[in-house]
Amino acid sequence: MTSRSDTIFALATPPGKSAVQIIRISGPGSARALRALTGYVPAPRYAHYASIQSPSGELIDQALVLFFKGPASATGEDTAEIHLHGSPVLGRMVMEMLDEMQHFRLADPGEFTRRSFFNGKLNLDQAEGIADIIDANTVSQHQQAIKQLDGALSLKTDGWRQSMISIAAELAALIDFADEDLPEDVAQKMADQLQALIGDLELALTKGQQGMIRRDGIKIALVGKPNAGKSTLLNHLIGDDRAIVSPEAGTTRDLVEVAMDINGVYVTLTDTAGLRQDAGLVESEGVRRAIKAAKEAQLVLLLVDANDHGPFATYQALLAEIDVPTDANNQRVIPLLSKSDLIKTQGLLPEWPMISVKDGQGLAALDQLINEQIEAILPEGEAPVLTRQRHMNHVKDALGYLQDACRHNPQESPELMAEDLRLAVSALGRISGHVDVEDLLDHIFSSFCIGK
Ligand SMILES: Nc1nc2c(ncn2[C@@H]2O[C@H](COP(=O)(O)OP(=O)(O)OP(=O)(O)O)[C@@H](O)[C@H]2O)c(=O)[nH]1
Ligand SMILES: [Mg+2]
Predict the structure, then answer these.
(1) Which of 242, 245, 321 to mutate to test the pocket of ligand 1 (most atoms within 8 A of CB)?
(2) Domains identified in the chain and CATH numbers
């Protein structure tokens, strides 16, 4: 049974040997724990050098201990930190001592942050920001996450909510004075305000696609017929011998995924099985996965062997097979003529980049092309505030209600319009956790690890 009145503890640093490890404690027993371990409770917010002793009085470690009196703490409760030397056995000994104490237990994943939320220290979107900061692999992911922790998303959605609430307040006045003559432009003014809000939400949704891509990383898939040189190119791009290369057609069967940091953007490169119709059972599964990877990628590098008899027809056939729209906003296909060292006539198809991993032709240009594409998918500028599908879903819901609200005439049926606005406000409130949040909590906090 987990209860919010329990005192929880967990290792806040990664397991394993290190210079220092930190055990965090939160709950009403925090002061009691420090007294049991060190013999006293240090003054709040001051670091104290203390001897940690076992229940039988043996010295276990010399440690730094801190006490924070709630509500002035990260979780809003009494909390404590014990900075021990980084020995796993020592960490276990102290945690076992804590576990022996009454109403103490190991924290569930994300439980510290969950308590911060319940005690009003964080909004839900800020809690997600913490998870994203810890998970960030690149500078741009970090920048987006710190903005969210700083409350950029709550600020935006609160602004929208306030605008909707003020329109709803005007509608309430219309309901109260239904029989009186109102200025003619009232309905028009409201329609304009609603349209402006709808425009804002639509723009945020469009930019939110970029926010999600920045958070999850840009996916680049290498696709082509067997033997086109995909694995060779992957190995070159990552500077490592990751994928098997051989003259045999059908070498790559499974997806080979490699994560990279390209100019601060998190990018996953995926090498795929060569596409062909007459593949055997295992290879067909590889082909199925290759097509799926191509559909999920924002950028597809479509390799056609420069020796191919009809490169353009091959390109068309491959395009048809992966069935990826070439003109979609966040999805692009770039044809590449590979193994250009093998053909004598250059400029076969002047508009297609020619590359040869063997003699290096076109590789610098390809790097530049990939950089340009990444910039096109994630343009510089103000970072988007919506970064997760969850945010997008709530904003889409709110948008739907606003569109419904627009269909009513505020003078004829102000109450119906007000109801749609209430629903829109409530949908947006779910982003920061202002309303009806219980059902969302498990989902959000379950992705945290223990000690957060
Ligand atoms: N001359 C030349 N040969 C290349 C080049 N790139 C790859 N090759 C050769 O082409 C053959 C196939 O290369 P891979 O990289 O295995 O091709 P693939 O597209 O991954 O093939 P599958 O995994 O079977 O679909 C190998 O023998 C490579 O050495 C190149 O730029 N020039
Ligand atoms: Mg291969």
Answers:
(1) 245
(2) 7-107 (3.30.1360.120), 129-213+388-445 (1.20.120.430), 217-377 (3.40.50.300)
